[in-house]
Amino acid sequence: MSPRAAIEAENLVKHFGETVAVDGVSFSVPEGTVLGMLGPNGAGKTTTVRMMTTLTEPTAGTARVAGHDVVREPAAVRRAMGLTGQAATVDELLTGRENLRLIGSLYGLSPAYVKRASEELLGRFSLADAGDRIAKTYSGGMRRRLDLAVSLIARPPVLFLDEPTTGLDPRSRVELWDVLRGLVREGTTLLLTTQYLEEADQLADRIVVIDRGTVIAEGTPLELKDASGAAALVITVSRAGDLPIAERMLREHVSEVHVDEGARQLTAPANGLGDMTRIAGVFAHSEIELDDLGLKRPSLDDVFLHLTGHRAEDAQDGESSDDTSTTDAGEKVP
């Protein structure tokens, strides 16, 4: 039996005057899974998230979160979800513990539960020792962890993360990934927008790529990589003098071989693990020693280039890592 969809969008459309920010976006996220949403800056990712989280109403189309319609049942949607935006929205004049208790009280949760949950979340996000410090003294990584902890105080089954690790150093980013994996193991459903292709590769079960307000590709990370171009078999010989012999051997089994003498490498197109196993067998019965033999699949950056015509870093030019005062289409965020 297939898991139920925790997040659904059907032909979502959003206009801002003459500007079409989102144009017929559809996707579904099964319970307990992660959907990564990729696309160039201004593609419509944030506007889509704002529609899904009731912050802006769709011009057309429908969306449901935990079975609730975002237009007809906005209060039920808000009770069922948490949202972490591109910039930490904690109150910097309150302590970490006070931030958690404030949001818990705004949800109408019992004081006893809020106290217990606050301590649990501070511990889970490695903030227990800083719980009584005011948030403005926190590092960027600490503020992002506190922001995520605040979004979880009511234990929502669905969590929307709009570029949650933007501006974090690599170590803080990896730490936050570990926390998110833990949430998914516990059954939380995540929709994640990100400018980091590695992040989507690490966390997402499926990915949708949005460009100019429309979904231009969808699939697992592996499916998208395979669709963007053939994998390559890469062979590194131990001795440079064996390279010509290895090239001749390889050409007996493949139509095209690229030779990199400096790296002592041979590269050839491959259709998957079967080709790699077959070629490995050829060299195993030869006298040529290999340092390495492996299958190199296209990266998600290759996918991005294939689908949008430019690499991911080009899409980020001029994009602020922290200032999210506007959406993709320039709509002011309250």
Walk me through the structure.
By secondary structure, the chain is an alpha/beta fold. The protein has helices spanning 45-52, 74-80, 96-106, 111-124, 140-151, 170-185, 197-203, 221-228, 243-251, 273-284, 300-308, 312-315; strands spanning 5-16, 19-30, 34-38, 60-65, 68-69, 81-84, 158-162, 189-193, 206-211, 214-219, 231-237, 258-260, 265-270, 290-296. The protein has a 6-stranded mixed β-sheet, with helices on both faces. The protein has a 4-stranded antiparallel β-sheet with strand order 2-1-4-5, covered by helices on one side. The chain folds into 2 domains: 5-225 and 307-315, Rossmann fold (3-Layer(aba) Sandwich); 230-296, 2-Layer Sandwich (Alpha-Beta Plaits). The chain is built from 12 helices and 14 strands.
SSE layout:
Blueprint: E1 5-16, E2 19-30, E3 34-38, H1 45-52, E4 60-65, E5 68-69, H2 74-80, E6 81-84, H3 96-106, H4 111-124, H5 140-151, E7 158-162, H6 170-185, E8 189-193, H7 197-203, E9 206-211, E10 214-219, H8 221-228, E11 231-237, H9 243-251, E12 258-260, E13 265-270, H10 273-284, E14 290-296, H11 300-308, H12 312-315
Parallel strand pairs: 3-8, 3-9, 6-7, 7-8
Antiparallel strand pairs: 1-2, 1-4, 4-5, 9-10, 11-13, 11-14, 12-13
Helix pairs in contact: 3-4, 3-5, 8-11
GO molecular function, one term: ATP binding
GO cellular component, one term: plasma membrane
InterPro entries: AAA+_ATPase, ABC_transporter-like_ATP-bd, ABC_transporter-like_CS, ABC_transporter_ATP-binding, DrrA, P-loop_NTPase
